[in-house]
Amino acid sequence: SSSSHHSTASYQQSLYDPAPAPAYMNQQNEVHDLQTNLANLSSTVTSLQRDMGAIAQSNRTADARLQRIDEANNSIVEALNRNSADLRSFIYNRPWASMRQQR
Questions:
Q1: Is pLDDT above 80 for 18?
Q2: Could you give the CA distance from residue 38 to residue 52 in angstroms, rounded to a whole number?
């Protein structure tokens, strides 16, 4: 009697716990997941490469602009140096002193 009770209990248990999927089903699911991940990675890499290209292009543009700013700054420095030299010679020659003397 106890053995028949046991078999009934295990039968009822199997109603609640579905049987595990066969191994080949799991493998098919894993293969599908891997294929999906691979496709996602591929498109991620493609968009990263596109982004890197855009960044490289904008770096080149910024580089050219900085080059022009450098050249403009050099011109400004040269002009300031000339102004300083003119100012020094003006102060050294003191034209206002001679003007006052002429009066």
A1: no
A2: 21
